[in-house]
């Protein structure tokens, strides 16, 4: 069957990503689509990537078959209509007409921009348009109370161009722009502390924190100095083995919850099984991975969060290679585990991996 190209059919898979990682997000989308039998035309701009299916084929099935939680470089995943050019004299009418003709209905409207300075400069325009747009959409029946939790996203490429997208409960980020902005705690030894805090928000459901991140647990922080990640563990009431030849923040040592061992994080072995392993060592991804695999196979921890520092080019290929190696190693050792990976907002040239052993 062939579909006629139509401005009101969502034939585009749109994702937001970290600026500078568009090629990696595009490579991942192409790979994921090919795995489930799809291909299309790739487009990208600063902080976003889209895959357009041929002949106007609806993208809904592809969007469902590649869950948002399985993506590494995407901050948000949407089914989208073609971008619309807008007149400065009347920006609202084309948007409303496209929504009504598409037959979409939704419970809320989000205005978003690329994570760039140019995108941020559109805030005043968006604020001026928000109320009249929502009022008209309510009158036209598109914005209503019960619409299956669907959300309309207006992705403003610039002040004269917007792309409409839709997301669905359970297959999207619940954060504006897919970005989790955390406040840096002034008492933490380094800004890297935000990476571990964001990882917990991303990978551990909030209602499970008391069970999985509770008092009296034990953890190891490999490559700990000066203590940004150790600080998060201590705040949760854990006892921490901080492994690093470098110095630790004095206030952390005064807590009585940290044992600082000046040893090599790649060779140190815990005295007993721990609840958590965390690691932000700067080294080749495959070397860090081999070390973590040893911990997991020997069941030295129940859960692990670690970062993989990425090369300058072909970063998706490196991530895919590492994740495939991890899955194969766990399977060969007969170790059941849930593996998740994402480039977090507070990451830079790296991705964060979470592994939970299933017992």
TrEMBL record:
Domain named RlmM ferredoxin-like: residues: 13-78
One GO term (biological process): methylation
Keywords: Cytoplasm, Methyltransferase, rRNA processing, S-adenosyl-L-methionine, Transferase
Ribosomal RNA large subunit methyltransferase M THUMP-like domain ranges (all copies): 90-166
Main location: cytoplasm
Pfam families: FtsJ, RlmM_FDX, RLMM_N
Ranges for domain Ribosomal RNA methyltransferase FtsJ: 190-282
Residues noted as binding S-adenosyl-L-methionine in the record, renumbered to the chain: 192, 225-228, 244, 264, 280
Subcellular location: Cytoplasm
Reactions listed under catalytic activity: cytidine(2498) in 23S rRNA + S-adenosyl-L-methionine = 2'-O-methylcytidine(2498) in 23S rRNA + S-adenosyl-L-homocysteine + H(+)
InterPro entries: RlmM_FDX, RlmM_THUMP-like, RNA_MeTrfase_FtsJ_dom, rRNA_MeTrfase_M, SAM-dependent_MTases_sf
Transmembrane segment boundaries: none
EC number, UniProt record: 2.1.1.186
Gene3D superfamilies found in the cross-reference section: 3.30.2300.20, 3.30.70.2810, Vaccinia Virus protein VP39
NCBIfam families linked: PRK11760.1 (NF008734)
Assembly notes: Monomer.
Protein family: Belongs to the class I-like SAM-binding methyltransferase superfamily. RNA methyltransferase RlmE family. RlmM subfamily.
Identification of the protein by name: Ribosomal RNA large subunit methyltransferase M
Provenance organism: Vreelandella zhuhanensis
């Amino acid at each position: 069957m062939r579909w006629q190209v139509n401005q009101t059919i969502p034939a585009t898979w749109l994702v937001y990503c970290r600026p500078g990682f568009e090629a990696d997000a595009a490579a991942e989308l192409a790979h994921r689509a090919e795995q489930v039998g799809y291909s299309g035309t790739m487009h990208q701009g600063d902080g976003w990537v889209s895959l357009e299916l041929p002949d106007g084929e609806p993208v809904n099935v592809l969007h469902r078959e590649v869950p948002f939680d399985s993506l590494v470089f995407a901050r948000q995943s949407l089914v989208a209509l073609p971008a619309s050019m807008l007149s400065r004299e009347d920006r609202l009418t084309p948007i409303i007409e496209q929504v009504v003709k598409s037959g979409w209905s939704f419970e809320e409207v989000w205005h978003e921009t690329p994570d760039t300075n140019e995108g941020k400069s559109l805030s005043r325009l968006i604020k001026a348009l928000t109320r009249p747009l929502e009022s008209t959409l309510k009158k036209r029946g598109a914005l209503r109370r019960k619409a299956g939790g669907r959300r309309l996203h207006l992705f403003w490429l610039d002040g004269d161009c917007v792309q409409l997208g839709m997301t669905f409960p359970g297959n999207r980020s619940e954060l504006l722009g897919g970005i989790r902005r955390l406040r840096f705690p002034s008492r933490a030894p380094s800004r890297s502390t935000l990476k571990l805090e964001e990882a917990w928000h991303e990978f551990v459901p909030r209602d499970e924190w008391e069970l999985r991140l509770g008092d009296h647990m034990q953890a190891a922080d490999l490559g700990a100095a000066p203590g940004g990640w150790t600080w998060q563990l201590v705040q949760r009431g854990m006892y921490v083995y901080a492994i690093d030849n470098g110095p630790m923040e004095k206030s952390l040592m005064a807590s009585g919850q940290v044992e600082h061992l000046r040893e090599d994080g790649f060779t140190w072995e815990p005295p007993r099984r721990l609840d958590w392993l965390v690691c932000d060592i700067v080294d080749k991804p495959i070397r860090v991975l081999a070390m973590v695999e040893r911990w997991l196979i020997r069941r030295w921890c129940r859960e692990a969060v670690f970062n993989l520092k990425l090369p300058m080019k072909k970063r998706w290929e490196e991530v895919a290679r590492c994740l495939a190696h991890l899955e194969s190693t766990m399977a060969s050792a007969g170790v059941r585990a849930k593996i998740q990976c994402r480039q977090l907002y507070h990451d830079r040239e790296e991705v964060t991996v979470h592994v939970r052993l299933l017992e």
